[in-house]
C-alpha cells in the first residue's frame, strides 16, 4: 500500500518487483503500467492506493492480484471485487485517480535526481573514510556523516543546497508551476502576422520583404521566441578527419601491481560491507519514508562500491 506517487517511485531499480518478467523499474514503467491499474481508496481521509503484483503470498501466483491492507493474506484478482470488499467490509471509499500534473511530475523527478546525487556523494565519502551516523540532519533529514576529526557533515546542506533553492522545482512547488505556466503561455501565444502593416492589406502578387516569425511553441519561453528572429548561423565546414595517431587507445582496467595496495582495498571493502549491513538493519525498522528512500539509495551505492573494489583487486 502506498500513500503517494513519490513513495511508489522509491521502488525504482534494475528490476520491477511487481512484474514476473525482468522489467526495468524506471519512472515511466511504474507510472504508466502500475499506477494505471492501481486501486485507489481513502483511509481516515487519507488517499491510498494498492498496485497489483505477482507475489507468492497468494494462491494466484500466475495472475496479478491485489492485497487488502486490512485483511492478512487476503488477495483479489479483480479490481472491482477488491473495491467492493474495501467499501463493504472496511468502509473505505474509493475514488477516481487523477494523473499527476506536469508541475507535480517535475517536482517528483527533481527530488529523485537530488536523492540520487546525495546517494552518490555519500558513497564517495564512505570510500574516503567517513563514517555514517544513526542521526539525521535537523534541516533536511539527510543521514549525517562523520569525518576523522569527529565532525558531523551533511552532504545535502553543504554541497547541494544553495541560495537558489527558491528556483529549484524539487524544493519549491511554485517554481515548478512557474515553469509550466511559461510553457503554456508560449504555446498559446498567437502566430505573428506574416504581412507587415505598412503594406496596407494583402499584397497583390508582390513578395513581402518581411521575415516571418516562427511560432514559439517549440521554444522554452518568450526569450527563446525572441531569439528566433535572428538569421540562422552559417553552417560550419565539416571538421577535418582526425589523424589515426591521435586516437587514444581504450584505457585498460587498472590492476594494482603494488602488493601493499591489496590490504587497503580489503580494508575499504570491509568498511563498505559494514555500512551495507548497518543500512540493511536500519531499513528493516525504518518508519520514515524519507529515511527508507535514503537507506535504499545507500545500499545501491554500497553495492556499486563493492563492485568497483572487486574490479580493482582483480
From TrEMBL:
Residues 242-253 have a biased composition (Low complexity). Residues 186-197 have a biased composition (Polar residues). Pfam families: Auto_anti-p27. Residues 230-241 have a biased composition (Pro residues). Residues 179-254 are annotated as: Disordered. This is Zinc ribbon domain containing 2.
